[in-house]
Amino acid sequence: MDQLRPLQKLTPPIHPYWGEKVNTTSKILLSWVEIDLNNILHFEKFLLSLVTQSENGSTFYISQTDEKGVVTDWPIEDDSYLKLTDHAGVGHLSLYGSQGLIQTWHYTLAINSLVTQFKDQFHERHQLIEKKRNEVVSEVSITTCPNCQSPIPPEQSTCIVCDPETEIPPSTLTLFKLWRFAKPYKKDLILGFILTLLSTAATLVPPYISMPLMDEVLIPFQTTHVMNYELASLYLGGLLLAALFAWGLGWWKTYILALVSERIGMELRTKTFQHLIHLSLEYFGAKRTGDLMARIGNETDRICIFLSLHLLDFLTDMIMLFMTAAILISIDPLLALVTLLPLPFIAWMIHFVRDKLRYGFEKVDRNWSEVNNVLSDTIPGIRVVKAFAQEDRENQRFIAANQRNLEVNDRVNRIWSSFAPTVTLLTEVGLLVVWGFGIYQVANEHITVGVLTAFLAYISRFYGRMDSMSRIVSHTQKAAAGAKRVFDILDHESSVPDTKNPVALPKQIRGQIDLTNVGFRYGNRAVTKNVNLQIQPGEMIGLVGHSGSGKSTLVNLICRFYDVSEGSVKIDGIDVRNIDTKELRQLFGMVLQEPFLFFGTIAENIAYGKPEATRAEIVQAAKAANAHDFILRLPLGYDSLVGERGQSLSGGERQRISIARALLIDPKILILDEATSSVDTTTEKEIQKALDNLVKGRTTLAIAHRLSTLRKADRLIVLDKGEIIEVGNHDELMAAKGTYYQLYQAQARHAAEIAESI
Amino acid sequence: MKDLLMNFNLEKDVFGNIKLVLDDGQSYDQVRIIRAFPISDPENGFSIVNQDGHELVWFESIDQLSEDNQRIAHSSLEQIEFIPVISKITDLNTYALPSIWEIETDRGLTKLKLKTEQDIRRVSSEALLITDANGIQYLIKNRKTLDKFSKKVLDRFM
């Protein structure tokens, strides 16, 4: 391949903007990235490309093209390397050679993942050119992210630069997705619609009857002074009947539609929750608990209210509008025209004022939360406030927040207070037009008095609804925003997808774990790289390292809370990605640093992983976990309530319950994640005893800060920055005098110092 | 090169790393210089930290350093300091969140993405600090002297 492929056919596809500026003859472009800062950190775009001159791929260089088309080249030596660093939102890409730093480029972290990709491709340049040469030049379709316009690499399905979920502003169209949940209730919805039509029609009858009542009863009476009681009672009867009909139908309609919307709401909530709890831990890590709770609780309820109240009212009003228009036109087209003409204008006016108000109210909301912030700062921190005698300062802060709140409210109230009178005024003006034109028509004997009264009755009813109709816009927007947030959860695909054809696990799992070339990226940060580890059945492995060295990540990968980015994790030779998630997790027992107890009895908590466990099994597990005695000391024994609203237990007691929980399911593989680090040394000893029971005969992975707790481990794995740096048992590692030795010495010194100071 | 006022010296090697040599001969590789109060008092209070972020030396002001050290300190700070000052908001895509603003800054034109309203922080009664979705911080020195449109945009989100 001695010819340069067209720029558009590169992966990632190059932006046409650069296409004209890059000299495409006699070079082979291997990779590129567009960086966005210049050397004095001003915003300026550059194209960095990795190119090679000759086809055998022996000379590479990095070529920089600026916006004016000026090209600068840096030749690359064999031992050149790129390094990424970042600080305060700015990333630096440095090129080093054997002589030292050659060049540094800067970019905002927005494109960090693209730069990382460029760096990786740089280091794989020899393989890359090999790949390019063998690759058939094929048309690569340019896929760009709909939000940020950055190219999406072919192996990725979503944009790596931005998180589309938080990017796309909510659209009203999202509400149509709700149809999926409304479908089962099609019949009820149709019935509801027919009832709406009928009940609306029934409410339109009375003004119609008022017309002959006026023309045939009241006006003749004024001239003849003879009251036609028969006719009058007929019409009055009609009025009563219409009212009764409207009442009955309205009741039925509201009831049916409320039933349906509640069911849709429930379905939406349960489906969302069901989907949510099956999502991977990665998803939960990136989201705030309160936010998820609000989405499932409040947002679904808001959608439900929107459907059953706002949308229904709006539809009823629309139906009424059309029916009224039809009736008015059938009575007198000209007067109907004059009556209906101001409507759109008035509707627009109301909507306009409401829109103005909305931003004002949002502002009020924000300020209100500021007032709340002061409260939630001060009240829980009251001891500090008092200890430093800062009551007055906090008081001033609260006054200031309230002052701001007052200012914003004053501004809003100026418009708000004029709102209701404005609506009334507009209504009156509209009625005035009808009155004026009507009187003129009556005077010319084009219409009767009865027709005029009917018109006035119809239309005044209508103006009253105008205000609430105008609110549909903001209600719809709010519901759409809520629906989007709910569907974001529902449409999110688990990043640890369930395999389609799970491999059946053998009955007897031995518990051998193989990690081959395991790498894991969290976002664009590599957390774990190139980990190779073989854990024998029944072996106890201790994971050691500073916090952030990737110990927990490794455990999470083995349990498949996350999926590896590179390499594979195998249990008894089967890739965890091919095992049914539920079956896989049943292999593991886990004791975590912060034991979580659910609200319920102690027995229920112990049997959490095996709800069908017998009482004898529960007691046995508790005994093995050294928990039996203290449980019996509680007034209600195994039936004592624990958890959020239950009996308070000490850290060590809770830990022993969670150990019993792990023991009960008799796991093949045991994970101890800092199981003893949150308790004091005496308690630790008790827990350690319980743990020793647990560890027996199982493959165990233990993470611990206190190295003394890992003495029993068959092998210790020392991790640093996501890589394994030392392996061996305690004595070997101490003899090697490496990182482990230093860690151990530091801890021993620390312990000695404490002992001395006592 | 000996610093007259301070008991340390800075050196820059070919790899672009800064080396700190103390009076007692102790030296540290790959140190960083950072401001302690980058916004409220950027000219006073500096710390030289090692790779792990532990402080090695504290000094009050760059003026106290020798000329050579000043140069190294300035070049180091330039590399890591990035708080563009917004002079104007020219356009935005939507008033709903997230909102992407087109802005003019002292470092050129760019776009910032505002994720939530809480990312606009009052630093003083006039100054605002805006953190965009990528963690870049933008400063507005005086929101009262901005043009009408910029003020309107800010007002909508504050």
Structural class based on helices, strands and sheet pairing of chain A: alpha+beta
Number of helices of chain B: 2
Looking at how many chains there are and whether they match, the oligomeric state comes to heterodimer
What value does the average pLDDT of chain B take? 82
Query: Roughly what percent helix of chain B?
Result: 10-25%
Shape of chain A: extended
pLDDT under 50 segments of chain A (min length 5)? Answer: 1-12, 136-142, 153-157
Uncertain stretches of 5 or more adjacent residues of chain B = none
Chain-averaged pLDDT of chain A: 80
Number of helices of chain A: 24
Strand content of the residues of chain A, in percent?
A: 15-25%
Rg of chain B: 19 Å
Number of strands of chain A: 19
Query: Can you tell me the number of structural domains of chain B?
Result: 2
Most extensive interface: A-B, 30 and 30 residues
Ends apart, CA distance between termini of chain A:
76 Å
Examine the coordinates and then state which fold CATH places here, giving the name of the CATH topology of the domain at 172-332 and 447-490 in chain A: ABC transporter transmembrane region fold
Radius of gyration of chain A, taken over Cα atoms and rounded to an integer in Å: 37 Å
Architecture per CATH nomenclature, i.e. the level-2 architecture of the domain at 172-332 and 447-490 in chain A: Up-down Bundle
Jot down its keywords:
heterodimer, A: 758 residues, alpha+beta, PH-domain like, ABC transporter transmembrane region fold, six-stranded mixed beta sheet, four-stranded antiparallel beta sheet, 53% helix, disordered N terminus, B: 158 residues, 2 domains, three-stranded antiparallel beta sheet, 2 helices, 12 strands
What does this structure look like?
The complex is a heterodimer of chains A (758) and B (158). Chain A is an alpha+beta fold. Among the domains of chain A are: 7-163, PH-domain like (Roll); 172-332 and 447-490, ABC transporter transmembrane region fold, CATH 1.20.1560.10; 357-438; 589-666, P-loop containing nucleotide triphosphate hydrolases (Rossmann fold). Chain A has 24 helices and 19 strands. Chain A has a 6-stranded mixed β-sheet. A 4-stranded antiparallel β-sheet of chain A has the order 1-2-3-4. The radius of gyration of chain A is 37 Å and the shape is extended. With 158 residues, chain B is an alpha+beta fold. Chain B has 2 domains: 8-80, no CATH class; 86-157, no CATH class. In chain B, the strands form 4 sheets. Chain B has a 3-stranded antiparallel β-sheet with strand order 1-2-3. In chain B, strands 4-5-6 form a 3-stranded antiparallel β-sheet. In chain B, a hairpin with a 5-residue loop joins β1 and β2 (18-22). The longest helix of chain B has 14 residues, at 67-80. Chain B is elongated and about 60 Å long. At the A-B interface, β6, β7 and α11 of A face α1 and β9 of B.
